[in-house]
């Protein structure tokens, strides 16, 4: 029973992830088509294509996992069916022998003589009980044969469905792999163009990085000022570290205990820029840096709180719309590039609560959340805290 429940849970989780990836690929593809009509730069096209290829590879991986899980279930059910058939044959054989014995001694006179030939009242009573038990056992075996027959029919039906599902997944994977090869060919063609003008594209990346750095510096200032303001309100002169009350200390400990298990700050999305300094995913000679992560999501997508906390700040950030800062003891989460905000300073929020609508860029068509995580003024990698980021 436990194994069955676990398998069911695994199937549901894989199917949910498969649908998410299909929607993600569809969204990226629609964005690519739209941007091609706008004559998007080659660099932007490759970035979009890289995301689609990554999502497609993940989809193939998940589909393979589903097919493998179905293979294991098919093998398990095949073995069950074989054993059940053997048990059923033995039951039927035993039942047939019992019926034949019962038929030979079925006359009422034989039963009466069996009772009257008892040497004592106690023996007659025991013989009567034996006759009742024999009759009950016949009925029980009949019911068991019926139940086993029904189970066998259900398993056979389930086996047919599982084989059909597996064939459908394999067919889907063939189509997905074919599309993946087409995208990889397009990627190679675009990369050849980029190689020819690598210096020009590296310059574009550096300009874009300067804008990101300016946004990150503005957020760092907001964090420092917010900490200093909170401490001043509580009578402390400390500027870079929160003065914690017992309740705030407990909240911080709870936040820390959930490291690696926090929910995503969007309902569905793809990380388009990771934390820290690293080579650009397309032009390797150019370096990029981010104090947080950037997550592309669907148009109109909402940012949501990853943990219980209090709204510390709601501010406009030049070049990145609005930012909401949530405090969780001495931990801070920041949700930047919001077009509309649903919360206000001092408000208590709960895990999963929507805090604003993420803005969509008019130039790229992308809906991107800038998500950052701090402990006091120390920058932290959100991927270490968010579940499977």
TrEMBL record:
Protein name per UniProt: Periplasmic septal ring factor with murein hydrolase activity EnvC/YibP
UniProt entry keywords in alphabetical sequence: Hydrolase, Signal
Pfam families named among the record's database cross-references: Peptidase_M23
Keyword Hydrolase: yes
Keyword Coiled coil set for record: no
Example GO molecular function: metalloendopeptidase activity
Residue ranges constituting the M23ase beta-sheet core domain according to the UniProt record: 290-382
Entries under InterPro entries matching the protein: Cell_wall_metabolism_enzyme, Dup_hybrid_motif, M23ase_b-sheet_dom
